[in-house]
Amino acid sequence: MLDSIKGVIFDLDGTLVDSMWVWVKIDMDFIKERNLTIPHEELMKDVAHCSFSQTAEYFRTRFGMTESTEEIMEIWNKMAEKEYGTNVFLKPGAKDFLDDLKKRGIKLALATSNSRHLLTTCLSANGITEYFDVLVTTDESTARTKSEPDVFLLAAERMGVDPKDIFVFEDVSHSMVGAKKAGMRVIGIKDKYSATREEDVEDLCELFIEDFTGFSVKEETGASV
């Protein structure tokens, strides 16, 4: 299936790395410290499509917080920095798959709704910074959400690869929708925190895999799982 691949775009949280637990912890700690009242399920529904800065703006306006959006983002960055630098690790098989792609000269990009600071901290801690030709955050794109194609098209433009020749790896359905709108092909990654079900995304992705274990690019036969 991947025999004609020229580029791959990875999501970070819940796809390339096991990190969604960090944000559940930060959300709950932040809400508790500020005595805010909102069920976590409602919060996730409201901000699932948002960029890092949009989520901070949501908190600022919904709860009438005195801090600016930038100050809230800085608070969250400090709360998350230690975890991303020491306790967030690659999904099983990810390093081997990155090695395989890189050896074959395939362009690699990472497109995330996370902050650039935490993105670079995480990649450095896991020793994979050099694998990526392009790093893009939704705050750099026009739409600033992965449910639209903007961030994926920006990554493709910077990679110098036609969208139709790109596979996107994502763990949540709204991001799969954005990648499809960009004219790209999608492979879904399971993550317990995103709770995405295969039956809910069967029309959005060509495969829905547990992790990257055994996933490789074969010159003759495409991908094997």
Descriptive keywords:
six-stranded parallel β-sheet, globular, single chain, two-stranded antiparallel sheet, 10 strands, 9 helices
Q: How do you describe this structure in short?
A:
This protein has 225 residues and is of the alpha/beta class.
Element layout with pairings:
Elements: E1 7-10, E2 17-18, H1 20-33, H2 40-47, H3 52-62, H4 69-86, E3 89-90, H5 94-103, E4 107-112, H6 116-125, E5 134-137, H7 150-159, E6 166-170, H8 173-181, E7 185-189, H9 198-201, E8 207-209, E9 216-218, E10 222-224
Parallel strand pairs: 1-4, 1-6, 4-5, 6-7, 7-8
Antiparallel strand pairs: 2-3, 9-10
What does this structure look like?
This protein has 225 residues and is α/β, with parallel strands linked by helices. The protein is built from 9 helices and 10 strands. The strands form 3 sheets. Strands 5-4-1-6-7-8 form a 6-stranded parallel sheet, with helices on one face. A two-stranded antiparallel ribbon has the order 2-3. Helix 6 links the parallel strand 4 and strand 5. The chain is globular and about 55 Å long. The protein starts with 6 loop residues before the first strand and ends with a strand.
